[in-house]
Amino acid sequence: MDSFANVKRIIEEIAAASPKSKEELEQFRIQYLGSKNVIKPLMGEIRNVPNEQKKEYGQLVNEAKDAAECKFAELQEALESASDDASFDLLDLTRPGEPLELGSRHPIATTMNRIVGIFQRMGFAIAEGPDIEDDWHNFTAMNTPEDHPARDMQDTFYLLNSTEMLLRTHTSPVQARVMTSQKPPIRIIAPGRVYRNETISARSHAQFHQIEGLYVDEGVSFADLKQTLMYFAQEMFGTPKIRLRPSFFPFTEPSAEMDVWIGMDNEKNYRLSKGTGWLEILGCGMVDPQVLENCGIDSTKYSGFAFGMGIERQAMRLYDIHDIRLFFENDVRFLGQFGSVV
Ligand code: 2NL
User: Does residue 249 line the site of ligand 1, with CB under 6 A?
Assistant: First the structure.
């Protein structure tokens, strides 16, 4: 039968095909598997095959189709691995390696690590808490009055217009969490990111970093606060010469701002201290007894001191950076200038 012979010839053709290039393989695909392939018309030929042989004929045509598909997959794989071998031949194993680029710490992290390290050596433990806080830990526990401007929608990021959940505006809620869950003596340092709804400029940002410290025990006095801060100034700035100016915070009483003497015998220090020789570093004070009571600590038995400082401001001075936004842009041209990996 002619039709049978035709199909058998094509099966033999397929078996014998040996394309040597991508182009020849494509020719093979068009001929046997393309939309106008040579197998399709063979199936039409079934009309001319006697009824008792139709089944056998159909099977033979399917065999041709399968053979074409198998052969194509086989040839494709063979060609691909051949081209892999070719690129292997081009590989130059004597070429020098790509140098690995070593990253460095973010200047905020190095500044923070330095400050935290000084207090750790004095026996303070690191405490951490969530960036998303509730109103109680962030404001109420900290003795912030209901009508205080910091509680305003304009100044604080509240979540989904809730007045209950917010992005913490300072790290004090971390300390509130420690005071409500641990008994004195408490000696902790709380570093972390805080948020305020500020217009972003070279001088202020809506996110920044803070470190707060807290020491609560029996008989803690202002003298302990001063001695601790003098030691910090010595370690951080190389001088224990500090000055405490009266100030106000809702959570401490009395409160003070601490300045460090950097002198004005060179132009940089003169500029930094605005011609006074004094550099403002942090706010501090004795923990308001109401704050202790809010957190379940007996204020007739215990007293404490606390302090807080912004990191960006210190890092800007330390590295002579004049735009706070640079810290948050993650531009490697900026970050790469701070070589430290510690
Ligand atoms: C500043 C001043 C300060 C505190 C933070 C504090 C924490 C507790 C209780 C009482 Cl749990 N006080 N923190 C105290 C005084 C000042 O921060 O200028 N920060 C950037």
Answer: yes
